[in-house]
Prior knowledge:
The protein is mainly α.
Amino acid sequence: MPADPAPPEPDDPPFILYKAGDEFGRAVADLALWVHGLLVPVYGREISSTAPWCPRWYEHTEAVAQLYGLWMAWQDLTGSRSPLTGPAMWHRDFLAPTMNNLRDPSGVFAGCKPGQHRPKEPPPVEEPRTAIPPG
Length: 135
């Protein structure tokens, strides 16, 4: 069985799903500032049955993880030390795939509508068989 992934080093920007408790809450609050202040006003586009969006996106763990990754890439590729092509790379390599994935009709926000959040149930999983049956 593969080992659990090592937690990030203290100098690395830890991924949001490694955080817990108040640290996770602060990370989501920081992410929300970016999502509500830049991402949605500039790139949100209209909600439709073929492009859903959940106003309570922060209650979808997968959306939080994907948006956090998108935000980290934005910070890396649009800052003062990024290459001149950084913003174009961010749009092509990160923004479009992430938003298309999140807003897919069968994706994370499927069933959510303005004013109506629908939590998703994860699919069932079974424990792997650890013993080989006789015979």
